[in-house]
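FW: tagging you since you asked about this chain on Friday. Here's the raw sequence from the shared folder, copied in full. Didn't touch anything.
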Amino acid sequence: MAILENGNLKGLVGNLVFRKSNEKTIVQTGPGRKTKQTKATKAAAIDFGHASTAGSRIRHIMGEVHLKLHDSNMHNRLINQLKRVTRPNRAPVGEKTIRGGKIDRLVNFQFNDKCHMHDYMHFDPEIKLLDTKQIAIQFPKFDMQNDIHRPKYCNLMKINLMIVVFNFEKQIYVRRHKHQISLCLQADSRTVELEELRFDVNDQDAETVLIGMNIEYYERFREDYSLLNNKELHPAAIVGAFIIES
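HL: got it, structure written out here
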């Protein structure tokens, strides 16, 4: 309530506070009511925190995949996709985990939404989690002229794979493997046939395994190569995602 005193208002009117200072009347916004969190909002905040932490770990560990050449909204997109992973989990809100969700919903997540992997690689590697707790990756036979995008000035391509084993419950990554496939575009043979790749993901703390892949493009200058990738040209994606059963 405000009081008129000697021609000046003092006190509260609505959310406005009137007070006098140095012969001047000052109007300020009063303190708003604090919103009290309910159990439901607290539980939802816990689930969001889990997704946000997992997203930060994926972004950090897979830095060699996206090379920071991602779009400005990548982290938010990744968190939203992780929330889609956990929603099918039948645990109560506040107790939903990535392990109990549908991890394959992360497959085809693009680190750069301007460069979808399918626009640059016109085939898909077959990726499986074997009973022996190994990741098996088999690329189909492909033609370098027609089955993979070749940017202008590019003489060399490198397909980079990163296999990362996480434990999101403990907020750690357990181990990772890296593999690089070099493709010389000046080679006589157009057809490429690669052997199956296998990576061990067996570990006591192993919970989730994600496979990231990118394509790097290089231009040759005499004996050196210069990377052509930039934020407009950097296909990088999560191409495999599995829960490791204990």
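FW: The helical segments are 39-61, 63-66, 74-86.
HL: agreed, and Residues 42-243 form one domain.
FW: great, closing this out.
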